[in-house]
Amino acid sequence: MKRFEAWLAEANTGLAVKEFPQGTRTAADAARAVGCEVGQIVKSLVFVAAGLPVVALVSGANRVDERRLGEVAGEPVVKADAETARNATGYSIGGVPPFGHLTEVPVFMDRDLLGYEMVWAAAGRPDSVFEIAPGRLRELSGATVVDLKGA
Ligand code: 5CA
Fold it and tell me: From ligand 1's centre to the CA of 27, what distance in Å?
């Protein structure tokens, strides 16, 4: 079994991963593959705040306001490079899942995601996603819900 599926099974989530050969590397790709609104795609973005990684779960319709994320993270943030993102989460950019990370990473979640009945997030690879209710996403990720979008 693949690594993120193994995590889902181990945690008894009942969540199922869907593979799309056409690819789900970006939010636009994922929305096209799934056939949902781009806002329903969860981007799992890794940042670094004072040397420590944090993850922002952001609606595919929104851009993160980095100043706002810095306020809630307590330190200014910069986008993580590919290697830092991989070391923190255990997954490569394009497939970073919203939870089940290799290390303990604080997670912040875009409030707008709660406006959808269901959302889709990356499942560890750039061709795989899974569907989840946003309330469940918050629980499993232990996320703090905040307004993350820029003006
Ligand atoms: N699978 C899709 C949708 S579920 C996905 O993972 N989308 S994502 O938005 O969460 O991941 C892509 C994001 O990674 C881009 O929006 C961008 O912010 C970031 N990214 C892409 N390339 C790099 C890079 N070289 N260094 C740092 N961040 C990058």
Answer: 9
